[in-house]
Amino acid sequence: MKITLGGVRGTSSMARSEFMRYGGETTSVLVQGRAGETVILDAGTGIRALGESWGAEPPREVLLLLTHYHLDHIVGWPSFSLLYRKGVAIRVASSLTDGPAVESILSQLMKQPFWPVQMDSVQAAVTFEKTPATFGRLRISSCPVHHPGGCVAYRLDEPATGASVVFATDIEWSVSSPEEQERFLAFCRQPAPCRLLLFDGHYSRATYPAFKGWGHSTWEEAVEVARKAGAGQLLVIHHAPDSRDEYLERLDRRLLAAYPGSSLARDGMEVEL
Length: 273
Ligand SMILES: [Zn+2]
Ligand SMILES: [Zn+2]
Fold this sequence. Notes:
seven-stranded mixed beta sheet, alpha/beta, Metallo-beta-lactamase, Chain A, 273 residues
């Protein structure tokens, strides 16, 4: 299993030079299975770079899983280049049960006055479905997490290699109930502790108090969760839009000292499991 980070910035994309070492694209992560499966988690602005990474040979089938519909996680959808490629099947699903269906949300984004090309005139074959339990040889599971308006975490397991990844963006740990916390930790631990945990570290212990209830965790909580879950490796994601590279580099050193094998996520980073 190979994981490629197309976008790791939270809330809004950042395009200035002092944000470029960690990257300014919003959340989108590619997971590729050993048997050729292509899964994309969330459609932030980072999905554009992921879509272009295949060049002339795009995958025939892509499964896009959405955690929730806050703009930073879907805004890249209309510019996902595979939408405009013939012969590509894009299956879209979300385990989020609250609110409108994923189909109406994404179609809305491509309606006038928001976008010139409508959903029914793209070249790819786009279909919507419930989150499948398997995709190729990958197993897929999900877990609701505490976030305003709802959000889900996904877990992908590859039994053939023992690889597993948990993707938990947009989760507010400190106000999650004990039941919600236990449910999430069990999700990370079963059937075996996840090899890689991507977890929301939008804030720090110092910056969080002013933003309680806004839906995000601190990097210190990401470490606590990784420890409790027994995660092999931790990548902290959803960096605050005002966190510049210099600040994130200092944080990265503290994070590594706190949990060996951990780091802040960067655009373009690849992890082979
Ligand atoms: Zn977000
Ligand atoms: Zn959100």
